[in-house]
From TrEMBL:
GO terms for molecular function: agmatinase activity; metal ion binding. SUPFAM superfamilies: Arginase/deacetylase (SSF52768). This is SPEB protein. It comes from Upupa epops. Keywords: Hydrolase, Metal-binding. The gene is Agmat. PROSITE patterns: ARGINASE_1, ARGINASE_2.
Length: 193
């Protein structure tokens, strides 16, 4: 729960202990906007703020499932200019993400990694309970491939954000969110499953 703004102070604390971290970021949006309605800190800007403060090891950042609306005519430009790997949703359609996660594992190496998962990375057919649903997203099976593909990485924290149960009368979004969090707990270092 909570919007993606919560990741910014979490990464401040994580970087204080571990230094700049790698990031596996699943989302419909890059969340690298500069400002909205005159505010520099909002749910569309946490990763720009993190870059500005040196909280991220930018060559070890991957953003998966990116698509949909943006305030910027080139929404991937800022991320790519920082050295992030951007994997648009259309590059994920109709296939397993295991090969991608093999590449991500190499990119992350043995240094500290944080996982930040916005539920709107998934298609709203599976997770409509979010404030900014975007069509043509990832499937739950692909979400599991991403999370399970992080097993063995030096994960120092994780979050799941933007779940808004009041927008989903079926309860499926909350159920999916709880299961994804469980899966994240299972891939933390030292957890035996």
């Amino acid at each position: 729960g909570g919007d993606h703004t919560i990741t910014y102070p979490i990464l401040q604390a994580v970087a204080e202990k571990h230094g700049p971290v790698g990031l596996v970021h699943v989302d419909a949006h890059t969340d690298t906007g500069d400002a909205a309605l005159g505010e520099k800190i909002y749910h569309g800007s946490p990763f720009r703020r993190c870059v500005e403060e040196g909280l991220l090891d930018c060559v070890r950042v991957v953003q998966i499932g990116i698509r949909g609306s943006s305030y910027d005519p080139n929404p991937y430009e800022y991320s790519r200019d920082q050295g992030f790997r951007v994997v648009p949703a259309e590059d994920c359609w109709g296939k397993s993400l295991r090969p991608l996660m093999g590449e991500v594992r190499e990119q992350m190496g043995h240094k500290p990694v944080y996982i930040s998962f916005d539920i709107d990375g998934l298609d709203p057919a599976y997770a409509p309970g979010t404030g900014t649903p975007e069509v043509a997203g990832l499937t739950p099976a692909q979400a599991l491939e991403i999370i399970r593909g992080c097993r063995g990485l030096n994960i120092v924290g994780c979050d799941l954000v933007e779940v808004a149960p009041m927008f989903d009368t079926s309860g499926n979004t909350a159920l999916l969110g709880a299961n994804l969090l469980f899966e994240m707990l299972c891939v933390l270092p030292g957890v035996k499953t």
